[in-house]
Structure formats: structure tokens, C-alpha cells
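User: quick one, sequence for these C-alpha cells?
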């Protein structure tokens, strides 16, 4: 692809696909150029650094999140749909969680999401400062729940790269972890369940936790209205 026909958007979309497959450590301008069938210099012509490329890719991912209007669907439905869509986005793009720890992520996609969250919790009846806290609490919950599947993606990638030696080491580590888990009563009872596995979570745990948080918010708002 000639440099003058390549666009920044094409580079960003290719970067997202590459990040989904290879993770943050696998993203280089050379690898991305190969994916786009151009020299690395053609990528640099549009986007100067890897940091900027990750920022743009992350902001494009933020734009995938559904942002329903709380005035139309109600604050609670808007909160559930936004959180669920955010969780799905983080699961589709497991590198996003890691990017939070190493890159400054900002842009219109993220700002639109953040502004929407504040609107949702202000629509619920929270004062601005409490809306900030509610939005932050739900976002932290969403991000934290996405770390388990992201960890499994990273582990599987590492095992694939490491070959038979890595697979043997993992099998040994798993046997040791099961042996340790068997010495604890509740884990022993759940030894074959996600609760006792590496990065495992029981089915529907995200929905249960989110419902509990929103129930708590609703109760807090109702208690405040009764005073």
C-alpha cells in the first residue's frame, strides 16, 4: 500500500486487530507495517510513536461502548447497558486493561463515555460529587471484572510462545495449585469450579455484582429522599 493512500484510521484499525491478536508487547511499527503491507516509515508518517498509536486505538475502542440516554430508558437501564457494553468491550480488547497501567489514555471516545456516566448518575438523583463517586465505583468494578479473561488471554499467548516447556511448567503449576486449594475447606468443595481455577469467575458473577451495586445506589438515594 503506497504511503500516500494509507490513512491514520486504517492504521488505527489495523493496530486494534494486531493488539487483539498479539497484545501490547507484540505491537511494533515494523509489525504493523507488515500487517498493512507497507514499510514502518509509512506508519510513522501518520503516527509518530507507539504511545500515540495505543492512545488512538484505545479511544477508538471506547467509541464501541453503547451509551443509552437515561432520559429515554431510565437511569438504571442506562447504567446496566453502559456497564455491560463496557465490560464486553474490555473483553473483546484484553490489552485495554494493561494499557491503563502503562499509557495515558484520553480522547473524544473516552471523554464521551466519562461524560455519559456522570449524566447517568446525575439522572439517578446523585449530587455532582456523589455522581463522580458512583461512576468511578461502577467503572472500577467493570474494569476489574475484565481482568480475569484478559489474564487468560495473556497466559494462553505466553504458553503458545513457550511451547512444550511452558505447557509442562503450567501443568505442574496447576497441579500444585489444586493441591494447595484442597487444603482449604471451601475451595476443596469447589475444586472443579471456576472459583478454584486460575483467573476463573462463576457464571453470571458480573451481573450479580452490578445488580448489587445498583441496588445499593438506589437504596441510598431512597434513604436520602426520606430524610
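Assistant:
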Amino acid at each position: 500500500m503506497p504511503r500516500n493512500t494509507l490513512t491514520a484510521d486504517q492504521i488505527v484499525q489495523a493496530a486494534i486487530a494486531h493488539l487483539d491478536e498479539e497484545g501490547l508487547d507484540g505491537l511494533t511499527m515494523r509489525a504493523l507495517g507488515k500487517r498493512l503491507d507497507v514499510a514502518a516509515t509509512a506508519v510513522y508518517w501518520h503516527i509518530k510513536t507507539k504511545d500515540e498509536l495505543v492512545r488512538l486505538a484505545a479511544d477508538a475502542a471506547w467509541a464501541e461502548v453503547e451509551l443509552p440516554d437515561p432520559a429515554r430508558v431510565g437511569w438504571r437501564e442506562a447504567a446496566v447497558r453502559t456497564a455491560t457494553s463496557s465490560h464486553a468491550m474490555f473483553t473483546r480488547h484484553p490489552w485495554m486493561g494493561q494499557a491503563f497501567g502503562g499509557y495515558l489514555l484520553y480522547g473524544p471516545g473516552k471523554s464521551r463515555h466519562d461524560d455519559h456516566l456522570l449524566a447517568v448518575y446525575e439522572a439517578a438523583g446523585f449530587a455532582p460529587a456523589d455522581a463522580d463517586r458512583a461512576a468511578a465505583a461502577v467503572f472500577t468494578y467493570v474494569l476489574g471484572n475484565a481482568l480475569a479473561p484478559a489474564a487468560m488471554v495473556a497466559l494462553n499467548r505466553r504458553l503458545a510462545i513457550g511451547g512444550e516447556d511452558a505447557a509442562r511448567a503450567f501443568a505442574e503449576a496447576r497441579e500444585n495449585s489444586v493441591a494447595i486449594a484442597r487444603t482449604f475447606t471451601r475451595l476443596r468443595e469447589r475444586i472443579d469450579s471456576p472459583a478454584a481455577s486460575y483467573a476463573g469467575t462463576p457464571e453470571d458473577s458480573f451481573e450479580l455484582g452490578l445488580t448489587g451495586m445498583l441496588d445499593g445506589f438506589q437504596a441510598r438515594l431512597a434513604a436520602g429522599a426520606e430524610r
